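Convert to structure. Protein one:
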Amino acid sequence: MTTTSLSGKIALVTGGGRGIGKAISLALAAAGCDVAVNYVSREADARATADAIRATGRRALITQGDVARSADVAALVAAVEAGLGPVDVLVNNAGRVAFESIEQMSESSWNEIIQVNLSSVFLMTQAVLPGMRARKWGRIINLTSVAAQAGSTMAVHYSAAKAGVIAATKSYARLLAKEGVTVNAISPALIATEMVAANPSVKPDMIPIGRFGHVEECGDVAVLLAGNGYITGQTIGVNGGLYLGS
């Protein structure tokens, strides 16, 4: 067994209270991590996820903050360090999609989607990297999207932001490879979340496997990436065969 034990590691999952973020938070807790669950407005979801983490015997902390704002990022990382300890595993999961045609997109909506989905990855990563580099150990896991790889007809700004996440993942991975810090991305498609359930035009038969993905399947990949010290700079597709490119 070459997988690194995650027992006692401190994980911070942005947007960790629901959907894919919740599944990743619970999977990391089951693997031995103490987990900080970040949220912006849905405090009840974050508290429920933290309770489920504690039920596994691990410590949990909830941290409110908008990860697209540098002041919030500094405050929430400080809160995690004070409440649990230095961050060993960062999962940049928080994000938002806006379905807009080319005609509907504005400079304002473009900037907002880039800020929420891409700038947040930069801000969070920069905040935890000094400690990871000093300890010569860290795992950064970024959530991107199949929209970054295949394109989207209804969310150009979202696709661009998520493609930027892939590029940033590769660049950080190259820069940090000799420092014990790995950086990878998970690229989901049509996972059974609130967003997918709310879109009646999305059908399971769009997926070659014939069903929507389970959030837990993303959690499994996050645990794999957190425990493996040789995988870095990779984008792992969790998409049921919808997109088969690299």
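Protein two, convert as well:
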Amino acid sequence: MMEATIRVEQLSKSYDGVLALSKLSLSVGVGEVFGLLGANGAGKSTAIECMLGTKKADGGSVSILGLNPVKERKRLFEDVGVQFQEANYQDKITVKELCIETESLYRTVNNYLSLLGQFHLADKQKNLVSELSGGEKQRLFIVLALIPAPQVVFLDELTTGLDARARRDVWKYLIELKEQGITMLLTSHFMDEVEVLCDRIGILKKGQMIFSGTVKEAVAASPYDRLEDAYLWYTNEEAE
């Protein structure tokens, strides 16, 4: 059994008595890319927030790099990069200022200038974050997640709003990160992205993990021969 970087056991969360996450268990090995899939409202974001300790789970346990995200938060976040869908930043801050501000939070950092270069944002340093296009913001949020030189990266819908070319650029860079042994947990709605990046996937439906395994296994266990079709079959509400 390979060493687990992320270990989640029996994680549960309810909002006002409605179950958002039910006894979720998963483990992600060192240098592995794990894709958490599911329709909107299936519990993906809740799962990530509970894993990171930004939302308090009702039950279960999480360990990331052997640390408890709630109790050892500060130590853990030296080694964890997070890119959120709706990152909330002040409007009147430039790209450069935001990068410098992010750098100041960590002891060891990747050089933000070279990251901006890799993500084709070097010429946007003086721009306000609010002036960036959707795709540029998305790329910036990934840069911010990588500034702490993380061992583990959480990426939530990382290429939503990017065109096909930009998406492929991001994939290429993530594959390089993976080759450096960085562990990733990502959520995505794009099955082509999942096929390219993910070693294993978990499919959430109404807060429950209904499948966990490789892309090949997911397809093999369905009546279809394409991941897109298999995924729709797994998550389809009508077909029950």
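The first helix runs from residue 44 to 52. The chain has a mean pLDDT of 89.
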